[in-house]
Specification:
α3 packs across α4. Helix content is 20%, strand content 30%. The termini are far apart. The chain is an alpha+beta fold. The chain has a single domain, classed as Gamma-glutamyl cyclotransferase-like (Hypothetical upf0131 protein ytfp). β1 and β2 form a beta hairpin. The protein has four helices and eight strands. One of its GO terms (cellular component) is cytosol.
C-alpha cells in the first residue's frame, strides 16, 4: 500500500526476517527510522498462510505460494519513504533476482492467537523469494515452513560479509535448491 497526498509518498512494508528488531539487518531499519525514512507500526501477521523457509546461509525467504503452508507468518510493519524503499530494494537484491517486492495482506497481531478477534486487514508489500526459484525452495525445504523467523530459526545464519565471495548469492540459491 502506498500512502500519499501532501506528504511524501510512503509504502507499507511487512518485514519477516533479518530486518526485524533483534536481527542482523535491523540496523538498516534503525538508520531509516533515525533519518525519518521509516516508522515502525507494530507487529503484524499475514492474512494468508504462506511458507517461510531458510535458504542458503540460513537466509529467510517468504514464498509467494498462498495456502501451501499451515502457518500465517509473524513479522513487523513499517511505513517507508521512497528513499528508504530504494535502500531496502538494494539490500534485498531486487535487481539481482534474489527477492521481489509484491503485495501482501496483513493484520495486527494481537494476543497469542495472532488475530485476537481483530479482522482489520492492511494492504502492504513484502520481499518474497524471487518466483524463478520459490517452488524449488519450497520443495528443498521438505515443504515445511516456519511461523516466525525467531532466534532458534536464525541459528546458522551467515552475515553477508562472512559468506564465500567466489559465487554470487543467486548462484548459491540455485545450488541450494538443487542439492538434496
Amino acid at each position: 500500500m502506498t500512502i500519499s497526498g501532501n506528504t511524501p509518498k510512503q509504502t507499507l512494508i511487512f518485514s519477516y526476517g533479518t530486518l526485524k528488531q533483534g536481527f542482523s539487518n535491523h540496523t538498516l531499519m534503525q538508520s531509516l527510522i533515525s533519518q525519518n525514512d521509516a516508522i515502525f507500526l507494530g507487529n503484524y501477521i499475514t492474512d494468508d498462510h504462506l511458507p517461510l523457509v531458510r535458504g542458503p546461509y540460513g537466509v529467510p525467504f517468504l514464498l509467494n505460494l498462498p495456502g501451501a503452508s499451515r502457518h500465517r507468518v509473524r513479522g513487523e510493519l513499517y511505513s517507508v519513504s521512497d528513499a528508504g524503499l530504494q535502500r531496502l530494494d538494494v539490500l534485498e537484491g531486487i535487481t539481482l533476482g534474489h527477492y521481489e517486492r509484491l503485495p501482501i495482506v496483513v493484520r495486527p497481531e494481537i494476543g497469542d492467537s495472532g488475530d485476537g478477534g481483530c479482522r482489520l486487514v492492511v494492504d502492504a508489500e513484502a520481499y518474497y523469494a524471487h518466483r524463478s526459484f520459490a517452488e524449488d525452495m519450497w520443495i528443498r525445504s521438505g515443504k515445511v515452513g516456519f511461523e516466525s523467523y525467531n532466534h532458534d530459526v536464525a541459528k546458522g545464519y551467515v552475515k553477508r560479509d562472512l559468506r564465500p565471495k567466489d559465487r554470487s548469492f543467486r548462484d548459491q540459491i540455485t545450488l541450494f535448491c538443487s542439492s538434496n
